[in-house]
Specification:
- With 212 residues, the chain is of the alpha/beta class.
- The protein contains four helices and 15 strands.
- It has a seven-stranded mixed β-sheet, with no helix packed on it. A four-stranded parallel β-sheet has the order 2-5-8-11, with no helix packed on it. The protein has a four-stranded parallel β-sheet with strand order 4-7-10-13, with no helix packed on it.
- α2 packs across α4.
- The longest helix has 11 residues.
- The protein is globular.
- It starts with 21 loop residues before the first strand and ends with a helix.
Length: 212
């Protein structure tokens, strides 16, 4: 009898014999990148998808648990910003020989940390601009450019991202946000899988009301 396999968030390759999908958390090397358990990407190197992420800026990329990230996704961080409130956007201060002091942060329009919630599905070739906040359970369509915040359990598509629709009614969204299944133990989640994958949303709502 084969030994039971238990989900392990610290295992890099969650599919035996397939190296083109990885759990991200155990591969992180940068202290300003924080990724939750069981979030995966369809690639072999997550940090190559983060650009303009400089220690001197200090912004963080924070991604929750159980997110699903497709190939070609790009997280553009605040280091990509140029000064936009002056006559030129040219960054003289970054290049040798030009006499410009580094502008203060207040002049650079920095937008803070980029934060992706839990159980977010991100389609292929999505681009996140600096400082966006994406709520739990959102779906980001293929080729979308996300420049504004996305509410929980909302589907967005396009460039720039536009709301297609809410995934569920407000009552179910509220229940899911209160229930926070992603914070439960592995054994609890195992027992919840039939509920979490049930398409009868009225039944799901009744069951969540009983569990809360």
């Amino acid at each position: 009898m084969s030994e039971e396999v238990i989900p392990n968030p610290n295992k890099i390759h969650p599919i035996a014999g397939y190296d083109k999908e990885i759990y991200i958390k155990p591969t992180i090397t940068k202290p300003n990148v924080i990724v939750g358990d069981f979030t995966y990407i369809a690639d072999t190197d997550f940090e190559s998808h983060i650009s303009h992420h400089y220690d001197f800026v200090g912004d963080k990329l924070i991604i929750g648990k159980f997110c699903q990230i497709a190939a070609g996704v790009e997280f553009i961080m605040n280091g990509a910003n140029h000064q936009r409130n002056a006559v030129t956007t040219f960054p003289f201060y970054t290049l040798e020989g030009w006499k410009q002091d580094t502008p203060p942060e207040t002049e650079m329009g920095l937008k803070g940390d980029t934060v992706i919630g839990n159980d977010v599905w991100i389609g292929q070739n999505v681009t996140f601009l600096p400082g966006v906040k994406v709520g739990d359970g959102a779906i980001i369509g293929t080729n979308t450019v996300v420049r504004d915040n996305v509410e929980p359990y909302t589907i967005v598509i396009g460039n720039p991202a536009k709301v297609l629709r809410k995934r569920f009614d407000d009552d179910l969204i509220k229940l899911l946000e209160q229930f926070r299944w992603w914070d439960k133990s592995i054994s609890e989640i195992q027992t919840l899988i039939p509920l979490l994958t049930n398409s009868d949303l009225r039944y799901v709502k009744r069951e969540l009301e009983q569990l809360l």
